[in-house]
């Protein structure tokens, strides 16, 4: 799988963001000599608006977008990058205008009561900067982050007013309808995601059948459908909302431990915060709303010979894939800090794959040199799931050993 196919979603987003600059330049040169400070101030604003709109569009988690971006984890990375690009581009807009007009810049935006377009732009910019800084650079609890995120809709609405009221190249013609189209799509996406999501998105209703603490900090939860059973593929995940007064109704992603052929859905949760701590005391017969499935882990790994590397709780998607290995030569290395964290060993051994448990406290930090002593790494696909720093570090090491990045697959998933 080549670089372009892996990043096709990002390439599409960047192309759409640069199109306004091309048409803007064609419009500008019609009027003679180009003032490049003014041109670039408009170009970065238009590209920034498109990136900003993509930030909303990608947040819908639409299935066709997941397919284009080759997995929800890649979609979320692009969603985050769209926000960063929007911040970088839009912050240059007033700075370039200030460079062009100097002291006159202030007089251009005052008096504010006569410049609704300018006021809308300033308010949109202020809200955008505050929310994006909090979203991208400050760690806050998910519920607070989600509430703060909603203010971006107000910022987008004000930015749309600014774009269409201020005298510029977007006052008429192609650019007007191009930017208008993106703004409308983004506003629809915002309304869909914040107001209509629970009404329009299909969610399955399940019932907790059993809760088993398989270690001191890992719990297995089994679910039975009430009406229709969700169809999913090995290696995928879903979002779960447990309808219990002891647990917040926020959604959390968990990979399937079960296989689609199994009667029950099984997931496992490791204690890593208040939410997962409470899951350990979850009562049977609790209602669960399940949204999904999502993810494309393993979908693009086509070789029959594969190396699976799981870090800690990252074993979960591989457990779901165990029943799909009959025609494949699989080696699974499960990296854990202590032996007590090795789970589902019987199921793994019974699957017939080559299983290598790795205890880091005994054998030291895992690296490719140690992996090469355990199993060959050439002419195969490598799938990894675990802590992101571990996966990124191993990928770099594999590439230094001549393994193509096109044959290395891992999920980089974060809810925020």
Characteristics:
single chain, 416 residues, alpha/beta, six-stranded antiparallel sheet, globular
Description of the structure:
With 416 residues, the chain is of the alpha/beta class. It has helices at 3-6, 8-29, 36-58, 63-68, 72-101, 104-109, 116-137, 142-149, 151-165, 173-200, 274-279, 316-321, 345-350, 360-363, 368-374, 388-400, and strands at residues 204-213, 218-225, 237-243, 252-255, 265-270, 287-294, 305-311, 329-336, 354-359, 381-385, 408-410. Strands 4-3-6-1-2-5 form a six-stranded antiparallel beta sheet. α3 runs parallel beside α10 (173-200) and α9 runs antiparallel to α10. It is globular, with a radius of gyration of 25 Å. The mean pLDDT is 86.
Topology, please?
Blueprint: H1 3-6, H2 8-29, H3 36-58, H4 63-68, H5 72-101, H6 104-109, H7 116-137, H8 142-149, H9 151-165, H10 173-200, E1 204-213, E2 218-225, E3 237-243, E4 252-255, E5 265-270, H11 274-279, E6 287-294, E7 305-311, H12 316-321, E8 329-336, H13 345-350, E9 354-359, H14 360-363, H15 368-374, E10 381-385, H16 388-400, E11 408-410
Helix pairs in contact: 2-3, 3-5, 3-10, 5-7, 7-9, 9-10
Counted beta strands: 11
Largest sheet: 6 strands, antiparallel
Q: What is the string of helix and strand elements?
A: HHHHHHHHHHEEEEEHEEHEHEHHEHE
What average pLDDT do the residues reach? 86
Query: In angstroms, what is the radius of gyration?
Result: 25 Å
- Structural class comes to alpha/beta
Strand order, main sheet: write it out. 4-3-6-1-2-5
Q: What's the helix count?
A: 16
Helical fraction equals 40-55%
* Poorly predicted sequence stretches spanning 5 or more consecutive residues: none
Gross morphology? globular
What distance lies between the first and last C-alpha atoms, to the nearest angstrom? 28 Å
Strand content: 15-25%
